[in-house]
Here is the input.
Amino acid sequence: MSNDRIGLIGCGAMGSALVKGMITRGGVDSSSVFLYDLNDERKKQLAAEFNCIPANSYKDFVPDCKYIFIAVKPQDIEGLLYSLKPLVQPEQICISIAAGITISYIESCLFSGAKVIRLMPNTPCLIGEGSIAISTGDTVTDEERRKAESLLKPLGMTVRLPENLMDAATGLSGTGPAYVYLFIETMIDAGVSVGIRRDVASKLVIQNVIGAAKMLDSNAQHPAELRNIVTSPAGTTSAAMLILEENGFRSCLIKAVREATKRSKELRMG
Here is the structure.
Protein backbone atom coordinates (compact mmCIF):
# COMPACT_ATOMS: atom_id res chain seq x y z
CA MET A 1 0.00 0.00 0.00
CA SER A 2 1.34 3.40 -1.01
CA ASN A 3 1.47 5.99 1.77
CA ASP A 4 0.28 8.79 -0.50
CA ARG A 5 -2.51 7.19 -2.52
CA ILE A 6 -5.99 8.63 -2.10
CA GLY A 7 -9.25 6.94 -2.99
CA LEU A 8 -12.54 8.82 -3.35
CA ILE A 9 -15.91 7.09 -3.36
CA GLY A 10 -18.58 9.53 -4.48
CA CYS A 11 -17.91 12.26 -7.06
CA GLY A 12 -20.73 14.66 -6.25
CA ALA A 13 -20.33 18.32 -5.33
CA MET A 14 -18.33 17.82 -2.12
CA GLY A 15 -16.35 14.87 -3.47
CA SER A 16 -15.40 16.96 -6.48
CA ALA A 17 -14.43 19.85 -4.19
CA LEU A 18 -12.09 17.54 -2.28
CA VAL A 19 -10.37 16.43 -5.48
CA LYS A 20 -10.12 19.95 -6.89
CA GLY A 21 -8.67 21.38 -3.69
CA MET A 22 -6.17 18.61 -3.05
CA ILE A 23 -4.82 18.65 -6.60
CA THR A 24 -5.02 22.26 -7.80
CA ARG A 25 -4.24 24.02 -4.51
CA GLY A 26 -2.74 21.28 -2.34
CA GLY A 27 -0.17 19.91 -4.76
CA VAL A 28 -1.34 16.30 -4.51
CA ASP A 29 -0.11 14.17 -7.42
CA SER A 30 -3.19 13.48 -9.54
CA SER A 31 -1.82 10.08 -10.57
CA SER A 32 -2.16 8.99 -6.94
CA VAL A 33 -5.88 9.86 -6.76
CA PHE A 34 -8.44 7.19 -7.64
CA LEU A 35 -12.12 7.89 -8.23
CA TYR A 36 -15.31 5.86 -8.16
CA ASP A 37 -18.95 6.85 -8.52
CA LEU A 38 -22.08 4.95 -9.53
CA ASN A 39 -22.58 7.71 -12.10
CA ASP A 40 -19.97 6.65 -14.63
CA GLU A 41 -20.16 9.86 -16.66
CA ARG A 42 -19.64 12.06 -13.61
CA LYS A 43 -16.67 9.96 -12.51
CA LYS A 44 -15.02 10.07 -15.93
CA GLN A 45 -15.61 13.80 -16.29
CA LEU A 46 -13.97 14.54 -12.93
CA ALA A 47 -11.07 12.21 -13.70
CA ALA A 48 -10.49 13.87 -17.08
CA GLU A 49 -10.66 17.38 -15.62
CA PHE A 50 -7.99 16.73 -13.00
CA ASN A 51 -6.09 13.87 -14.62
CA CYS A 52 -7.05 11.37 -11.90
CA ILE A 53 -7.57 7.63 -12.32
CA PRO A 54 -11.19 6.48 -12.78
CA ALA A 55 -11.93 2.99 -11.48
CA ASN A 56 -14.59 0.51 -12.52
CA SER A 57 -15.00 -0.47 -8.87
CA TYR A 58 -13.76 0.87 -5.56
CA LYS A 59 -12.47 -2.65 -4.98
CA ASP A 60 -9.79 -1.85 -7.58
CA PHE A 61 -8.12 0.82 -5.43
CA VAL A 62 -9.27 0.64 -1.80
CA PRO A 63 -6.67 -1.97 -0.73
CA ASP A 64 -3.85 0.22 -2.08
CA CYS A 65 -4.83 3.63 -0.66
CA LYS A 66 -3.75 5.24 2.59
CA TYR A 67 -6.76 7.58 2.66
CA ILE A 68 -10.25 6.51 1.64
CA PHE A 69 -12.67 9.42 1.34
CA ILE A 70 -16.32 8.42 1.61
CA ALA A 71 -18.50 11.09 0.01
CA VAL A 72 -21.81 9.31 -0.52
CA LYS A 73 -25.29 10.13 0.74
CA PRO A 74 -26.03 9.01 4.32
CA GLN A 75 -28.72 6.58 3.14
CA ASP A 76 -26.18 4.80 0.93
CA ILE A 77 -23.39 4.42 3.45
CA GLU A 78 -24.41 1.26 5.33
CA GLY A 79 -24.21 -1.05 2.33
CA LEU A 80 -20.99 0.60 1.18
CA LEU A 81 -19.30 0.17 4.56
CA TYR A 82 -20.13 -3.51 4.76
CA SER A 83 -18.73 -3.93 1.24
CA LEU A 84 -15.56 -2.14 2.30
CA LYS A 85 -15.11 -4.28 5.41
CA PRO A 86 -13.02 -7.06 3.78
CA LEU A 87 -10.97 -4.51 1.83
CA VAL A 88 -9.90 -2.02 4.51
CA GLN A 89 -6.73 -2.70 6.51
CA PRO A 90 -5.98 -1.46 10.06
CA GLU A 91 -3.39 1.09 8.85
CA GLN A 92 -5.76 2.74 6.37
CA ILE A 93 -7.78 5.85 7.23
CA CYS A 94 -11.43 6.21 6.28
CA ILE A 95 -12.59 9.83 6.06
CA SER A 96 -16.36 10.32 5.90
CA ILE A 97 -18.30 13.46 5.01
CA ALA A 98 -21.70 11.77 5.34
CA ALA A 99 -23.89 13.91 7.60
CA GLY A 100 -25.21 12.24 10.72
CA ILE A 101 -23.08 9.10 10.39
CA THR A 102 -21.11 8.68 13.61
CA ILE A 103 -17.59 7.37 13.96
CA SER A 104 -18.81 4.51 16.14
CA TYR A 105 -21.33 3.51 13.49
CA ILE A 106 -18.65 3.43 10.79
CA GLU A 107 -16.36 1.43 13.06
CA SER A 108 -19.15 -1.06 13.79
CA CYS A 109 -19.71 -1.63 10.06
CA LEU A 110 -15.98 -2.06 9.39
CA PHE A 111 -14.10 -3.58 12.33
CA SER A 112 -13.03 -2.76 15.85
CA GLY A 113 -10.03 -0.44 15.79
CA ALA A 114 -10.67 0.94 12.32
CA LYS A 115 -9.15 4.40 11.80
CA VAL A 116 -12.02 6.79 11.11
CA ILE A 117 -12.17 10.56 10.64
CA ARG A 118 -15.48 12.38 10.35
CA LEU A 119 -15.89 15.73 8.60
CA MET A 120 -18.63 18.33 8.38
CA PRO A 121 -17.72 20.60 5.45
CA ASN A 122 -19.80 23.34 3.86
CA THR A 123 -20.31 24.43 0.27
CA PRO A 124 -17.73 27.28 0.16
CA CYS A 125 -15.18 24.44 0.14
CA LEU A 126 -15.92 24.42 -3.59
CA ILE A 127 -13.93 27.66 -3.93
CA GLY A 128 -11.38 27.01 -1.19
CA GLU A 129 -13.14 29.22 1.37
CA GLY A 130 -14.99 26.61 3.37
CA SER A 131 -15.04 25.64 7.01
CA ILE A 132 -14.61 22.00 7.96
CA ALA A 133 -15.33 20.57 11.39
CA ILE A 134 -13.18 17.49 12.00
CA SER A 135 -13.50 14.75 14.58
CA THR A 136 -11.29 11.68 14.87
CA GLY A 137 -11.74 8.18 16.19
CA ASP A 138 -9.72 6.89 19.12
CA THR A 139 -7.28 4.90 16.99
CA VAL A 140 -6.29 7.83 14.76
CA THR A 141 -2.94 9.23 15.89
CA ASP A 142 -2.14 12.94 16.16
CA GLU A 143 0.24 12.64 13.20
CA GLU A 144 -2.43 10.95 11.07
CA ARG A 145 -4.93 13.67 11.96
CA ARG A 146 -2.43 16.40 11.04
CA LYS A 147 -1.74 14.77 7.68
CA ALA A 148 -5.46 14.54 6.98
CA GLU A 149 -5.84 18.22 7.91
CA SER A 150 -3.05 19.12 5.50
CA LEU A 151 -4.97 17.41 2.71
CA LEU A 152 -8.07 19.43 3.62
CA LYS A 153 -6.31 22.79 4.04
CA PRO A 154 -6.78 23.84 0.38
CA LEU A 155 -10.55 23.67 0.90
CA GLY A 156 -10.54 26.28 3.66
CA MET A 157 -10.33 26.26 7.44
CA THR A 158 -10.42 23.13 9.58
CA VAL A 159 -11.64 23.18 13.19
CA ARG A 160 -11.22 20.24 15.54
CA LEU A 161 -14.33 19.35 17.52
CA PRO A 162 -15.34 16.51 19.82
CA GLU A 163 -17.82 14.34 17.99
CA ASN A 164 -20.67 15.20 20.33
CA LEU A 165 -20.58 18.71 18.80
CA MET A 166 -20.74 17.60 15.17
CA ASP A 167 -24.53 18.05 15.06
CA ALA A 168 -24.03 21.58 16.37
CA ALA A 169 -21.40 22.15 13.67
CA THR A 170 -23.96 20.97 11.12
CA GLY A 171 -26.55 23.45 12.40
CA LEU A 172 -24.12 26.36 12.60
CA SER A 173 -21.53 25.85 9.86
CA GLY A 174 -22.77 23.15 7.52
CA THR A 175 -26.09 24.97 7.16
CA GLY A 176 -24.57 28.39 7.77
CA PRO A 177 -24.05 29.49 4.16
CA ALA A 178 -27.81 29.20 3.58
CA TYR A 179 -28.46 31.72 6.36
CA VAL A 180 -25.99 34.13 4.77
CA TYR A 181 -27.48 33.64 1.29
CA LEU A 182 -30.98 34.36 2.62
CA PHE A 183 -29.69 37.47 4.40
CA ILE A 184 -28.01 38.69 1.21
CA GLU A 185 -31.09 37.93 -0.90
CA THR A 186 -33.29 39.85 1.51
CA MET A 187 -30.89 42.80 1.65
CA ILE A 188 -30.87 43.01 -2.15
CA ASP A 189 -34.67 43.00 -2.19
CA ALA A 190 -34.62 45.74 0.44
CA GLY A 191 -32.29 47.79 -1.75
CA VAL A 192 -34.63 47.41 -4.69
CA SER A 193 -37.57 48.44 -2.50
CA VAL A 194 -35.90 51.78 -1.74
CA GLY A 195 -35.13 52.49 -5.38
CA ILE A 196 -31.71 50.97 -6.12
CA ARG A 197 -31.37 48.92 -9.31
CA ARG A 198 -31.12 45.19 -8.55
CA ASP A 199 -27.69 44.67 -10.12
CA VAL A 200 -26.29 47.63 -8.20
CA ALA A 201 -27.95 46.53 -4.95
CA SER A 202 -26.45 43.07 -5.43
CA LYS A 203 -22.93 44.46 -5.79
CA LEU A 204 -23.33 46.71 -2.76
CA VAL A 205 -24.72 43.98 -0.49
CA ILE A 206 -22.19 41.32 -1.46
CA GLN A 207 -19.32 43.73 -0.93
CA ASN A 208 -20.81 44.76 2.42
CA VAL A 209 -20.75 41.12 3.56
CA ILE A 210 -17.22 40.53 2.24
CA GLY A 211 -15.90 43.74 3.78
CA ALA A 212 -17.56 43.20 7.15
CA ALA A 213 -16.27 39.61 7.34
CA LYS A 214 -12.73 40.72 6.47
CA MET A 215 -12.83 43.42 9.14
CA LEU A 216 -13.81 40.83 11.74
CA ASP A 217 -11.14 38.45 10.50
CA SER A 218 -8.38 41.07 10.53
CA ASN A 219 -8.68 42.16 14.17
CA ALA A 220 -9.70 40.86 17.57
CA GLN A 221 -12.66 43.17 18.08
CA HIS A 222 -16.01 41.66 19.01
CA PRO A 223 -18.72 42.05 16.33
CA ALA A 224 -20.67 44.25 18.75
CA GLU A 225 -17.74 46.67 18.97
CA LEU A 226 -17.59 47.10 15.20
CA ARG A 227 -21.36 47.50 15.07
CA ASN A 228 -21.25 50.18 17.77
CA ILE A 229 -18.67 52.15 15.77
CA VAL A 230 -21.19 52.68 12.94
CA THR A 231 -24.20 53.17 15.23
CA SER A 232 -24.40 56.91 15.91
CA PRO A 233 -26.93 58.23 18.45
CA ALA A 234 -30.33 58.75 16.78
CA GLY A 235 -28.75 57.92 13.42
CA THR A 236 -29.81 55.71 10.53
CA THR A 237 -28.06 52.59 11.84
CA SER A 238 -29.64 53.06 15.26
CA ALA A 239 -33.09 53.26 13.68
CA ALA A 240 -32.43 50.11 11.66
CA MET A 241 -31.09 48.15 14.66
CA LEU A 242 -34.23 49.01 16.64
CA ILE A 243 -36.43 47.44 13.98
CA LEU A 244 -34.30 44.29 13.85
CA GLU A 245 -34.42 43.95 17.64
CA GLU A 246 -38.16 44.58 17.82
CA ASN A 247 -38.78 41.86 15.25
CA GLY A 248 -36.60 39.23 16.91
CA PHE A 249 -33.74 39.09 14.42
CA ARG A 250 -31.31 37.59 16.95
CA SER A 251 -33.72 35.13 18.53
CA CYS A 252 -34.97 33.97 15.12
CA LEU A 253 -31.45 33.21 13.92
CA ILE A 254 -30.56 31.39 17.15
CA LYS A 255 -33.74 29.33 16.86
CA ALA A 256 -32.82 28.45 13.26
CA VAL A 257 -29.37 27.15 14.30
CA ARG A 258 -30.89 25.20 17.20
CA GLU A 259 -33.55 23.67 14.95
CA ALA A 260 -30.98 22.64 12.33
CA THR A 261 -28.88 21.07 15.11
CA LYS A 262 -31.94 19.21 16.40
CA ARG A 263 -32.72 17.93 12.92
CA SER A 264 -29.16 16.72 12.47
CA LYS A 265 -29.51 14.71 15.69
CA GLU A 266 -32.74 13.18 14.41
CA LEU A 267 -30.98 12.02 11.24
CA ARG A 268 -28.04 10.55 13.15
CA MET A 269 -27.01 6.95 12.61
CA GLY A 270 -24.92 5.31 15.30
